[in-house]
Amino acid sequence: MPDMKLLSEVKRIHHIYESREVPAVCFSQLQREVYHLPPLESALEKIQQKFRAEVTLDPHTADPHLCVSKDKRSVTLRKRRSKVLQREQRIPFDLEVLGSQEFHAGRHYWEVQVNDKPSWAIGLCSHSPSSRGQQQPRRWTIHLQDGDYVAGGACPVVLTLKRKPRGIGVYLDWELGQISFYNLSDNSHLHSFQETFSHSLKPYFCVGPDSIPLSLCGLADL
Predict the structure, then answer these.
(1) Which of 49, 132, 140, 197 has most Cβ atoms within 10 angstroms of its Cβ?
(2) Whole-angstrom distance, CA of residue 97 vs CA of residue 59
(3) Which of 196 and 127 is assigned the larger pLDDT?
(4) Distance CA 154, CA 73 (A)
(5) Is the pLDDT of residue 151 over 50?
(6) What would the CATH number be for the domain defined by 43-221?
């Protein structure tokens, strides 16, 4: 557009807007609307509902100093040895027992009550730790020792917990090669191991030098 025409157009537009009246002010009342979405189901809740397994203890794998209950869901240290073991500084890792179930596929979840036990270890084991003359079994565990919560695998990791766990949830996904642990006190995720499994796995439990039982939660407890 030529300069003169542009200037004349600007003047015309300016005149149009100069002659316009200011519109009246309008008021409107806003109404508050509240919408409630259904709560999202946590990952742990989905696992608990879909993959919960009935896990029991195998008395034949228990250390002689351990006592397995008749329903095979609780294990504790025999009283005659407790006073001796309480003087030891470390967890005696020979105080072990395995689960009766053997997993070689699929997804499985179970829960263990640790309550106020000062030392314990929970997880999975590649084969019986009591076997002799064989390759050292592999373990993937969460254990409490000397006040520290540790993920015990190939490279132990000290965990920082917001809340002391009174129960531990264990989740195995065989195909994905994943073992995960959860704090049942606040449903938080504690740690996950990522592996490629080549052998069957069994639930693993280690009882510390105290008289407080380690107990499995059965499906009947739901």
Answers:
(1) 140
(2) 7
(3) 196
(4) 29
(5) yes
(6) 2.60.120.920
